[in-house]
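To fix ideas at the outset, we first show an illustrative case, written as a sequence plus integers encoding its fold:
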Amino acid sequence: MTEQVTRATFDEVMFPNYAPAAIIPVRGEGSRLWDQEGKEYIDFAGGIAVTALGHSHPVLVDTMREQAGKLWHLSNVMTNEPALRLAQKLTQKTFADRVFFANSGAEANEAAFKLARRYAFDHFGPEKNEIISFYQSFHGRTLFTVSVGGQAKYKEGFEPTPGGIKHCAYNDIEALKALISDKTCAVVMEPIQGEGGIIPADKVFAKAVRELCDEHKALLVFDEVQSGVGRTGTLYAYEQTGVTPDILTTAKALGNGFPVGAMIATEEVAKSLAFGTHGSTYGGNPMAAAIAEAVIDIVDTPEVLEGVNKRHQLFVDALTAINEKYDVFKDIRGMGLLVGAEVKDELAGHAKDFLANAAQEGLLVLVAGPNVIRFTPSLIVPEADIKEGFERFERAVAKTAADLKK
């Protein structure tokens, strides 16, 4: 007999590092979820930009069932067909020549940062080890990745953290010029900052970063954990920046919720991850790879990618219309279906209130920091769900605005 569990069970048995909502979803289909009480929600959160093809996508369900009946795990003592097929597709569809599989975005980034240092060590010696990242960036929760990330709160209490890491302002090329040197082994950036507030890289800035990396013989690492796999309207966001990185990391949507991540790189750079230098027990396991291959096959089509750009405009138009009525946002920005609405200065710190009231109305959204409401729905969210979702969001905005103005 299955034991009944509730939200209170979390507080009894789980570490207190999360503060999950009161609702416990038990079923999902497409862009809709149902909780234990049977209440329905429209999902504009997508598991934090993960369920890019929605919940229980029939092709992915069939792929999982088929692979589950064949082979789950081997370890990297042997390779497997799904991993090889997925790696082939990733190299065929991107700038990269080589692929390393992991289980998450943090692991993919950890591998990327290790590779950057190893490459510099191999080619220039141990003194070239500094990594430059940007304030408000987010690259994961391991000790190395929180150190490269540009948000001090994630490092607090875990010091001493790894050294040789510097930070500067995003979209400020003069700040980077002042920091970069011949000791720099890599510059790490998100082509659009996600957790930092949905801030796209200026194209001129991105091009100048690439040029500075070339000038100082440093690698350019793009963290596309959140922006990749169709989220911005191209398979990877770097395609829209006009520059090509040396290393790119991808996860989140890659498995549509099944844990999988990857680091991809050029042939020349990849050589430094020689035999025995890095590894992952589960990385590239047949189950994850089979599902990720199916995700790539569906997402990397004109129908889906063009649909992302169309849906982007629907989201922007809906948010603009709501803002004209309630005057709560000072900026609406983003790329594809990674959209942020920043609240006005007088509402600073209250993005979470919009989220809470949206949930009460049957809509799931996110925040990106204390001032930005974040929308990361399925890339194939039906237009009818967008319309109804924003009707629910407008009711949440009306309630939030009224409460905050009391």
